[in-house]
Amino acid sequence: MAQHKHVELVAKKFEPSQAIKTASFALTALGILGFIIGLVKNQEQLWTSYLVAFFYVTCLGLGGMFFTAIQHIAKAGWSAGIRRLAEGMTSFFPVILIGGLVLFAGIKKPYPWANADFIANSPIVAAKTAYLNVPFMVVRLVVFALGMFFFGKKIVGNSLKQDQNGANELSHSNTAWSIGWVLFFAISFSLFSVDLLMSLLPTWYSTIFGIYCFAGLFQSSLAFLLLMMIYFKKTGMVQGYFGIDHIHDIAKFLKGFTVFWAYIAFSQFMLIWYANIPEETEFYLLRAEGAWLALSFGLLFFKFIIPFLSLLPRGVKRNEKMLVAICSLILVMQYLDIYWLVYPNFFEGHFTFGFYEISLLSLFLGIFLMLLMRFFKKHGLVAVKDPRMHESISHHVTY
Could you report the per-residue pLDDT of 38-70, keeping only the tens digit for each? Predict the structure, then answer.
C-alpha cells in the first residue's frame, strides 16, 4: 500500500517585490506616454498598436476565467490549489469595457467599414452594414464586457466567499454559473473576435475565426498560468497546495492546446486554399507577401513545432527552467499571432515594429500586473477552504 508523507501547507500573504511594483508602474507610464505621443503624431499606427495590445491582454484575462470555469464544470479536485491563480487573471475584466470604449474613439482609423466613403465604393461591405455599424458594435462590446464582469463577480466572488465560510454549496453553485459562462463565452467571444480583428478586412470571412482566436487565447493563458505557478512555488509563497505534479499536468494541457491551435490554423488555411474563393483567399495572399511570409512560417515553427516537440518528453514537463523558456516563447508568439492578424491589412509586403507597439503593449501589461498584484494581496494565493482541496494536496502524476 502506498504511503503518503506529511505535506506542509503554506500559503503566505502576497507582498509584491519592489522590482515587480516598479516594473508595473514603469510599463504603465511608458504606455501612457506612447499613447499621448501617438495621438499627436501618428494616430494610424497608434490605434493598430492599441488594438493588438488590448486584444492580447484581454485574452489572458479570459483564459484565466475559462480555466476556472472548466474546473468547476468538471468538479475537478486536482486543480483546487491552483485555481485562485487563474481567478486572479480575471481582475482585468473591468478594463475590457474601458479599453474597448477608448478604442472606439479612433474607430475610423483601423476599421474601413466605419467610413461612409469606403462603404459607398464597396458593394460587398455595404451589404454587411446591418451588422457592421458603429452603434451595434458598441452594443455588442458593452454586452460582452458587462457579461464577463457579471459572471466573474459571481464565480470568483463565490470562491472568495468560501475562503470565509467554507460553504460547500458555493462550489455547487459555481458549477451552474460556469456552465452559463461557457455558453455565453462561446458566442460572445466569437463575435468579439470578429468585431475587433476579422472586420479589419471586411470583405473577408471565416466561419472558424473565433475558434482560431480562442485556441491562441487558451494556449497563451496556460503559459502565463504556468509561469505564475513556477514563480510562487520557487519563492516559497505557496507550498503543499500545488507542486511539480500540478505543473506537469498544466504543461500537458499546454501541449494539448498547442496541437489544437495548429489544427484550427491548418483547418482554416486548408479549407480556404481548397475552395479558392477570392473573398476568402485575400486574407492569406496578404500574408504570403514579403516579410509577412517569414512571419507566417515563424508562427508555424515557434508557436507549434518547437513548443510541441519540446513538451513531448515527460522530463521537460517537470523541468521548471525549460518550462519558463517554452512559456515565454509561446507568450511572445501569441502577441505576434495577433500582430499577424492585424498589421498585414495596413502594411502590404512589409511589417513595422517600434515605439508604439512596445509602449502600448507595456500599457496593458502594466495595468494587468497591477491588477493581479492588487487581487492577490487582497484575497490570497490559494482557495484554502475549497471542499476538494484534499484532492489537490494529494495529487500525484503517474504518467
Answer: 999 999 899 999 999 999 999 999 999 999 999
Q: Max alpha carbon distance in the chain (Å)?
A: 77
C-alpha cell at 219: 494556449
Q: What is the pLDDT of residues 91-104, one digit of tens each?
A: 999 999 999 999 99
Q: Tell me which residue of 265, 174, 266, 255 sits closest to 218, measured CA to CA.
A: 255
For residues 263 and 212, what is the distance between their CA atoms, to the nearest angstrom? 9
Residues with Cβ within 8 Å of 246's Cβ and at least 6 positions away in sequence, in order, are: 78, 79, 81, 82, 229, 392, 395
Q: Kindly report the number of other CB atoms within 10 A of residue 248's CB atom.
A: 20
How confident is the model at residue 162, as a pLDDT?
95
* Rounded average pLDDT over 188-196: 97
pTM (predicted TM-score): 0.95
Residues 6+ apart with CB under 8 A from 398: none
Indicate if the pLDDT at residue 312 is higher than 80: yes
Can you name the residues that pair with 101 across neighbouring β-strands?
none
Nearest CA to 71 among 58, 55, 82? 82
Buried/exposed 348-382: b ≥16 CB within 10 Å, e otherwise = eeebeeeebbbbbbbbbbbbbbbbbbebbeebbbb
